């Protein structure tokens, strides 16, 4: 027990004091002056010793608490002098001081790291006291972006640039917004987000400002450069089956013209082929218009479509393109009469994209196969799956395939899957992916 010696010392002094008092009492009873005088002197000495014995501990604790009050953790208490219990007490105080100093050093190091990191980021950051306006912290990026010198209070900005003060500090926003601010007689577009936090009784506001002018300009430039190639790629995806089907019909007509007996003309097949070309051409026109302003589309041309009819339309378009390829394309559904409301032209575009991707993925397969199935999930909603037995999509890029312009193909635009996802979003649905090297890839359209 750490304070065993303290208790023993206290008990000994109390017993000695009782003995001295007993001697005084015996001297008074027996009339012995020596006992009375000696006992009184010894009692005074013992009382003074007991007082010092007790106060030394309280003085040590008072010194320690005083140091804590003023956050002076550099104080060192002697561990080699004085009674054992007092040395143990000093040792405990020193351990507390060392621990607090270590914590402070760690916090200081973390603050320095954080400060260096925030200085390096290309985002302006400022935190200030809401009541006093005193700046708690700001970085160089904010000062450079706003063309301001280092300031200690936001009142400086209010006096120098009232309009900027209003935009940054006097306007409260619940979410990040982009605003235009005037700097050096130029308009600068920035993204501003803010939050308020409490530290004890003080409220602080953290404002984050990012210059998005250059980013927007670069993105706009890149988008314009890629727009033509993207549109060409997507249109070609639809034109290829149309062209192939038209060529097949033309060959039938030419063969019939050369020898009508050997090559009779099937009017039903001819009519079905022309209808498919007409329907897909209309869909292509609708797609081109939708792609041009996809972000502004708020209304779809929804109509009840039977799964069997949708699958037949896709099959008629794709079969001529697959005639010279070893890929087997199958359409399966338990209920061809199952109907759901969609924009058939746009959903056809999604399925064509997925099938063409599947054809490309099965090039190295021994028996390439693509299966398109339609069913209802547990909630009664229609879902269409496009599955292939190809090489699968590597795990490291699965999260990136829906990003616009991301492509692993040399001739790919990287817009097909992104556009497919947007079309499904317009239908208030979603597109999901499952893929592995052994079983191939499966895309699920959930409506």
Automatic annotation (TrEMBL):
This protein's UniProt keywords: ATP-binding, Membrane, Nucleotide-binding, Phosphoprotein, Transmembrane, Transmembrane helix
Chaperone as a keyword of this entry, yes or no, is no
TM segment ranges: 33-51
Question: Per the record's keyword annotation, is Acetylation included, yes or no?
Answer: no
Under which EC number(s) is this enzyme classified? 2.7.13.3
Q: Which reaction does it catalyse?
A: ATP + protein L-histidine = ADP + protein N-phospho-L-histidine
Q: Matching InterPro entries, A to Z?
A: HATPase_C_sf, HATPase_dom, His_kinase_dom, Sig_transdc_His_kin-like_C
One Pfam family it belongs to:
HATPase_c
Report the top EC class in one word: transferase
Q: Which CDD domains match?
A: HATPase
Q: Name one GO molecular function term.
A: ATP binding
For the Histidine kinase domain, which residue ranges apply? 230-447
PANTHER family given in the database record = HYBRID SIGNAL TRANSDUCTION HISTIDINE KINASE C, TWO-COMPONENT HISTIDINE KINASE
Under which name does UniProt file this protein? histidine kinase
């Amino acid at each position: 027990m750490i304070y065993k010696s303290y208790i023993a010392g206290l008990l000994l002094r109390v017993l000695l004091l009782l003995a001295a008092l007993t001697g005084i009492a015996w001297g008074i009873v027996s009339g012995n002056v020596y006992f009375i005088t000696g006992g009184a002197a010894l009692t005074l000495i013992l009382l003074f010793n007991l007082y010092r014995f007790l106060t030394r501990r309280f003085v040590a604790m008072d010194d320690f608490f005083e140091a804590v009050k003023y956050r002076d953790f550099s104080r060192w208490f002697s561990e080699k002098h004085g009674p054992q219990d007092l040395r143990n007490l000093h040792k405990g105080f020193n351990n507390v001081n060392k621990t607090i100093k270590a914590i402070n050093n760690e916090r200081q190091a973390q603050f320095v790291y954080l400060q260096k990191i925030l200085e390096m980021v290309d985002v302006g950051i400022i935190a200030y006291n809401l009541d006093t306006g005193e700046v708690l912290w700001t970085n160089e990026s904010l000062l450079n972006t706003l063309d301001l010198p280092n300031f200690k209070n936001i009142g400086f900005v209010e006096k120098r640039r009232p309009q900027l003060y209003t935009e940054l500090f006097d306007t409260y926003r619940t979410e990040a917004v982009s605003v235009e601010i005037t700097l050096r007689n130029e308009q600068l577009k920035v993204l501003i987000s803010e939050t308020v936090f409490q530290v004890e009784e003080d409220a602080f506001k953290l404002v984050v400002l990012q210059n998005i002018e250059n980013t927007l300009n670069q993105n706009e430039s890149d988008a314009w450069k890629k727009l033509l190639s993207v549109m060409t790629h997507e249109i070609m995806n639809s034109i290829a089956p149309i062209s192939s089907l038209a060529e097949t019909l033309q060959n039938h007509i030419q063969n019939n013209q050369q020898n009508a007996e050997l090559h009779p003309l099937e009017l039903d097949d001819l009519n079905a082929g022309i209808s498919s070309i007409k329907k897909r051409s209309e869909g292509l026109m609708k797609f081109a218009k939708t792609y041009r302003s996809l972000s502004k589309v708020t209304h779809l041309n929804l109509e009840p479509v039977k799964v069997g009819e949708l699958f037949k339309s896709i099959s008629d378009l794709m079969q001529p393109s697959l005639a010279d390829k070893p890929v087997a394309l199958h359409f399966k559904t338990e209920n061809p009469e199952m109907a759901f409301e969609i924009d058939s032209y746009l959903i056809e575009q999604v399925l064509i994209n997925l099938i063409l991707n599947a054809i490309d993925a099965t090039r190295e397969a021994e028996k390439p196969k693509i299966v398109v199935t339609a069913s209802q999930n547990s909630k009664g909603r229609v879902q269409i799956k496009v599955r292939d037995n190809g090489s699968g999509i590597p795990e490291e890029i699965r999260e990136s395939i829906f990003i616009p312009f991301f492509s692993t193909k040399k001739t790919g635009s990287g817009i097909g899957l992104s556009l497919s996802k947007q079309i499904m979003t317009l239908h208030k649905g979603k597109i999901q992916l499952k893929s592995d090297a052994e079983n191939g890839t499966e895309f699920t359209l959930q409506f």
